[in-house]
């Protein structure tokens, strides 16, 4: 229960400060990092604030879990890319 309360407090604080600083840097920072399809251009403010708050709070509470998920997703992406490359070579 304690970890849940800490997560909720971190979520609320991150969401509050991301929402407060949206116009002065958060939106521009997201636009620099994201591909053109996902760029915010100042829109979808609350969706991105909630997503950032969930990721930030989870990273603060369980950093190893987030790291392991990131590594797992990178390995899966690498395998898919290698299989696609192999399949395209066979098709030609």
TrEMBL record:
Residue intervals passing through the bilayer: 6-22, 43-61, 67-87
Keywords: Membrane, Transmembrane, Transmembrane helix
Keyword Membrane (UniProt): yes
Top-rank taxon: Bacteria
Protein name (record): Uncharacterized protein
Originating species: Vreelandella aquamarina
């Amino acid at each position: 229960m304690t970890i849940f309360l800490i997560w909720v407090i971190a979520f609320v604080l991150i969401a509050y400060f991301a929402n407060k600083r949206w116009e002065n840097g958060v939106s521009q920072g997201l636009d620099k990092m994201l591909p053109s399809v996902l760029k915010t251009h100042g829109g979808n403010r609350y969706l991105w604030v909630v997503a950032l708050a969930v990721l930030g709070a989870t990273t603060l509470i369980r950093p190893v879990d987030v790291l392991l998920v990131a590594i797992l997703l990178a390995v899966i992406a690498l395998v898919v890319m290698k299989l696609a490359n192999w399949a395209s070579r066979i098709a030609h």
